[in-house]
């Protein structure tokens, strides 16, 4: 087997891990306040169950987005928008 394949797989895994880490951090900071405000009256055991279900749901859709390429496209477009805002 060609050693270049191992290098390619390694760099692909590093890139995918970085993008996933970046997305998880940004999704925790934004978008959860509305859902969390609805969970104030729910017992703690039910909150944990709902958080687990949300984590599974988000992970599944993240996997679908990564498999389809939409994840990479969305992040590239977001990075371009951030660069345009910084240059203005």
How would you portray this structure in words?
Keywords: Signal. It comes from Vitis rotundifolia. This is Methyltransferase-related protein. By secondary structure, the protein is mostly helical. It is built from four helices and no strands. The protein is flat, with a radius of gyration of 18 Å. The mean pLDDT is 75.
Calculate the mean pLDDT score and round it: 75
Report the sheet-strand fraction.
under 5%
Radius of gyration: 18 Å
Poorly predicted runs: none
**Distance between the terminal alpha carbons, to the nearest Å?**
49 Å
Structural class: mainly alpha
How does the major sheet shape up?
Answer: none
| Number of E strands | 0
Shape: flat
Helix content: over 70%
Number of helices: 4
Compact description:
With 88 residues, this protein is mostly helical.
